[in-house]
Specification:
The protein is mostly helical and 158 residues long. It has helices at residues 2-22, 32-43, 51-71, 74-83, 96-116, 120-126, 142-157.
């Protein structure tokens, strides 16, 4: 019975993390890396674990690391996590230098985007007058009535 309780406790934690990722209508990319880090910590064997649970955790951790490396875009997810106010300190990243590098790369990328983006004055100079849009899907033809009204208006003016 104790064996089943230990396995249940372990699997319950996995269920919680999978619900965070898949149980919501919309999951933001910024939450993925914190959940991945939490799962990696959960899969690390502990001294208190029974041998069968420690073995299971080792196997799951190896498989999980392989799948994460193959399927996740780490650079994109790091940027998304860094830009989320909930994770602004990036505690998911262990080394402070790596955290600083992520923010420096984001800043560099934003500066490059600003340089490439034309200023408002430049875009106003190059902008042509907007063309009139055709009315689509109307049940009547306005042009006939407008012509009649124009003729009536001209007669009244003269």
């Amino acid at each position: 019975m104790l064996r089943i309780q230990r396995i249940h406790k372990f699997l319950l934690n996995i269920d919680i993390y999978s619900t965070i990722l898949g149980g919501q209508k919309f999951v933001t990319g910024s939450i993925v890396l914190p959940v991945v880090a939490s799962l990696k910590n959960l899969f690390k064997p502990d001294d208190k674990d029974a041998m069968y649970i420690a073995n299971m955790k080792e196997e799951m951790l190896d498989d999980f690391k392989r799948r994460v490396a193959e399927n996740l875009n780490g650079d994109f997810l790091l940027k998304a996590t860094a830009l989320d106010a909930r994770f602004k300190n990036l505690k998911v990243i262990q080394h402070k230098e790596a955290r600083d590098e992520i923010f420096n790369n984001l800043e560099k990328e934003l500066r490059e985007l600003i340089e490439k983006t034309p200023t408002q004055k430049d875009s106003e100079d190059n902008q042509e007058a907007p063309k009139k849009k055709m009315k689509i899907g109307l049940d009547f033809d306005e042009s006939d009535e407008e012509t009649e009204m124009d003729d009536i208006a001209k007669k009244e003016i003269t």
